[in-house]
Amino acid sequence: MAIGILRIHNLFAVVMLSGIYSLISAALFVTLDAVDVAFTEAAVGGGIATVLMLGTLALTVDTEKAGPGNLQILPLAVVVATGAILIYGTLDMPAFGDPAAPAHQHVAPLYLEQGPIVTGIPNVVTSVLASYRSFDTMGELAVIFTAGIGVMVILAATRRDRGD
Amino acid sequence: MVRRHFVLRVIAKLLMPFILLFALYVQFHGDFGPGGGFQAGVIFGAAFITYALIYGIDAARQVMPEWVTRWLMALGLLLYVGVGYFGLFLGGKFLDYNVLAQDSVHGQHLGILLVEFGVGTTVAGTMVTLFFTFAARKKF
Questions:
Q1: Domain range holding B63?
Q2: Number of domains forming the structure of chain B
């Protein structure tokens, strides 16, 4: 499907395909027991992002401009090299689900054991997100807020330029 | 607006309270089940966007005027930061929930609930504002 998105030049079909792709990955997250990620993916990826992309298409054009047709050697080489380095990096990683992995040794046992007791909240995701990592969450919230403000400012500014 | 898509309109109106209720459930039950502010916010926002898609942007603006969504955006972040400073004034550290109530477990509970509510408010406000801003543009 991702290859299909790359090959198609009709942007409406591309938006629809990426929405379907989001829904499928939401189903994938459910099978991985990450239900809250699946919520977000289905609502944002499958719903709101698709609607916003369609809104953008309605404002601009819905067919892609023909790019340079010949094969671009340099970008391809950069992508292949980066991918190779990333795969080489994964060779050093501990096996999937290994209980001795560093990620499972550092603060995770503390959060899992003490989190429900200290915060009185059985959902570990919530206690980590809102209590142990509340500074991170505040930053994320500020990012969302700033992004919203940015979009408002950009779109409102161009509206004023055209004088209506 | 022409009276088209009769089935769609009726079903959307039927589903709307359930979507909003589910968003609130995800928001306030996030302490126990999966969910939390981000998820609840996007579901809440998606409900209004659905409404706007089916009933038209003007009908949605009557339900949820643009100044309300802008205020929601700001108020959520203010609530989050406010909880942080409130802990500071009560003698703790910034975003220290332990001092918010009579004991630390209750304080943590209250702090997380308020903070998650702030997250949900800002996310919902931002989503609806983004949609309104896009929809208000004319084709150039």
A1: 6-136
A2: 1
pTM to 2 decimal places = 0.77
CA dihedral A76→A78→A81→A82, nearest 10 degrees, is: -120
Q: Could you report the per-residue pLDDT of A106-155, keeping only the tens digit for each?
A: 777 777 777 777 777 777 777 777 777 788 888 888 899 898 888 888 88
Nearest CB neighbour to B129, from listed A47, A58, A152: A152
Chain B contact probe: residue of A36, A126, A151, A160 with most B CBs at under 10 A: A126
Which residues of B fall within a CB distance of 8 Å from A148? 73, 125-126, 129-130
Burial of A102 (0-12, 13-18, 19+ CB in 10 A): exposed
The series of mean pLDDT values per 10 residues for chain B, 140 residues long, is 74 89 85 79 88 84 85 88 84 76 78 86 89 73
Distance from CA of B18 to the nearest CA of A (A): 15
Residue B89 lies in a domain: yes
Q: What's the gap in Å between the CA of B65 and the closest CA on chain A?
A: 15
Q: Could B77 and A159 be called an inter-chain contact, meaning their C-beta atoms sit closer than 8 Å?
A: no
CB distance A43–B46 less than 8 Å?
Answer: yes
Pick A130's closest partner by Cβ from B70, B105, B112. Answer: B112
Give a yes or no: residue B32 inside a domain: yes
According to the model, what pLDDT value does residue B2 have?
A: 52
Q: What is the pLDDT of residues A63-121, one digit of tens each?
A: 667 665 666 788 889 999 999 999 998 888 777 767 777 766 777 777 777 777 777 77
Q: Which residues of B touch A156 (CB under 8 A)?
A: 133
* B1 domain residue, yes or no: no
Residue B18, domain member (yes or no) = yes
**Do A121 and B31 meet the contact criterion of CB atoms below 8 Å apart?**
yes
